[in-house]
UniProtKB/TrEMBL annotation:
Identification of the protein by name: Phosphomannomutase
Superkingdom classification of source: Bacteria
InterPro entries: A-D-PHexomutase_a/b/a-I, A-D-PHexomutase_a/b/a-I/II/III, A-D-PHexomutase_a/b/a-II, A-D-PHexomutase_a/b/a-III, A-D-PHexomutase_C, A-D-PHexomutase_C_sf, Alpha-D-phosphohexomutase_SF
Domain (Alpha-D-phosphohexomutase C-terminal) ranges: 377-451
Family matches, as Pfam families: PGM_PMM_I (PF02878), PGM_PMM_II (PF02879), PGM_PMM_III (PF02880), PGM_PMM_IV (PF00408)
Cofactor dependence: Mg(2+)
Length: 456
């Protein structure tokens, strides 16, 4: 019997195929999704998309069977990036399900679910209820008796690209050459549509859709997966490099020298652009982003709001504050004009517009958004995360000039530095992020905290 609790995470469903996630689980999830979201009493249909993984079409088809078994209809948009599915959910005003395991290896797959208008489905907003119904269906069998709904196939790729161009117009920028590493993921599907014409010349890397990821993992957060992009940017003399993860909802950027531009710098740059269009607006940033982000927002007349890590928290705060934009250290970027959903492609268009509207190279342009030295996220296995965090707090709390908060894990702040330690939701890991005014201070604080975590 499948351990349903093990594959239903805080924000989505994911597991090894077929050991944890198979067609029976997908089918039961489709039926439960309709019941929990009360689809039959509302829109009457669900929109479904899937990525290039070998298991995705069959899992999506099984989920569709579960949906239609209740009497609800399905709009099948076929191959899609996750942000393309969010676009479909917003444009059609339907709840949606995307079959992808994002940046995870080929043996995994998963389901990202949303309410109509791309609103999140998280642990406290329906996911636990869906998991309970799935467990019941797998034990007792599915309910029967409803007149089946219908499946309609709809291609929304061109409409998706047109919507992005309506939000960021590149027609007036200087010509740019951009290397794009799709990592054999869904960027190979969406990038050609978005950049079919205009002043941006694309140099493609690994655009062939292949869920076995023959060239490298589709996880640009790991520096080893940027090596090919960096080399190609230097080889071609390109103006910029972009790397998308497997489901193409996140975008990472390297400058003309092949050096990575931090997601915090991208968050700051996009926030400034959005505030220029919407003066005085709120911008959400998670607590791991650089201190430069709230500084930039304030300097440009906006209101920065600090959030926990995770898309459901960001989206909730965006809705509560009517924020124009939100950014995370993991390269998730959220836009009010995109139904508050995350889209790496729209962030990429903002980056290209910012670069192409002036004459400086990317390294100079984005340097003004990089104000501090950061460690990046450092993961360590621990036996008892809570006890380790408590020991770290005991070490720092009460020191002069130190403040502590528990918005998400433990954040310890001083005038010249801060760090955060958070337990992983899915693994026995502590995640450490450190930032300071200079590299020497950052390294000193980083090493102090790591010694407490590892006991060395």
């Amino acid at each position: 019997m499948v351990d349903v609790a093990a594959i239903f995470k805080a924000y989505d469903v994911r597991g090894v195929v077929p050991d944890q996630l198979d067609e029976s689980v997908a089918r039961a999830t489709g039926a439960a999704f309709v019941e929990v979201l009360d689809v039959l009493a509302g829109p009457g249909a669900v929109v479904i998309g899937y990525d290039m993984r070998p298991s995705s079409p069959a899992l999506a088809a099984a989920f569709a069977e579960g949906v239609t078994s209740t009497g609800a209809d399905v709009i099948d948009i076929g191959l899609a990036s996750t942000d393309q599915l969010y676009f479909a959910s917003g444009r059609l005003d339907l709840p949606g399900a995307m079959f992808t395991a994002s940046h995870n290896p080929a043996k995994y797959n998963g389901i990202k679910m949303c309410r109509a208008g791309a609103a999140p489905v998280g642990a406290d907003s329906g996911l636990r209820d869906i998991a309970d119904l799935v467990a019941k269906a797998l034990t007792e069998g599915p309910a029967t008796g409803a007149t089946p709904g219908h499946i309609t196939r709809k291609n929304l790729l061109t409409a998706y690209a047109d919507h992005l161009h309506d939000l960021v117009d590149l027609s007036g920028i200087r010509p740019l050459t951009v290397v794009v590493d799709a990592g054999n993921g869904m960027g190979g599907h969406t990038v050609p549509a978005v950049f079919a014409e205009g002043p941006v010349t694309i140099v493609p890397l690994y655009f062939e859709l292949d869920g076995n990821f023959p060239n490298h993992e589709a996880n640009p957060l790991d520096p080893k997966n940027l090596v090919d992009l960096q080399a190609k940017v230097r080889e071609t003399g390109a103006d910029l490099g972009l790397a998308f993860d497997g489901d193409a909802d996140r975008c990472f950027v390297v400058d003309e020298q092949g050096d990575p531009i931090s997601p915090s710098a991208i968050t700051g740059a996009v926030a400034v652009r959005e505030l220029a269009k919407h003066p005085g607006s709120t911008v959400i940033h998670n607590l791991i982003t650089s201190k430069a982000v709230p500084e930039l927002v304030t300097e440009h007349g906006g209101t920065p709001v600090r959030s926990r890590v995770g898309h459901s928290y960001i989206k909730q705060q965006m809705a509560e504050t009517d924020a124009v934009f939100g950014g995370e250290h993991s390269a998730h970027y959220y836009f009010r004009d995109f139904w508050r959903a995350d889209t790496g492609m729209l962030a990429a268009l903002h980056v290209l517009a910012a670069l192409g509207e002036q004459d400086r190279p990317a390294s100079e342009l984005f340097a003004e958004f990089e104000r501090y030295a950061a460690s990046g996220e450092i993961n360590n296995k621990v036996e008892d995360a809570a006890a380790t965090v408590a020991a770290i707090e005991d070490t720092y709390a009460g020191r002069e000039g130190i403040t502590v908060d528990h918005l998400d894990g433990l954040t310890v702040s001083a005038g010249q530095w801060w760090f955060n330690v958070r337990a992983s939701n899915t693994e026995p890991l502590l995640r450490l992020n450190v930032e300071a005014a200079d590299r020497a201070t950052m390294e000193r604080v980083r090493d102090e905290v790591l010694a407490l975590i590892t006991g060395s």
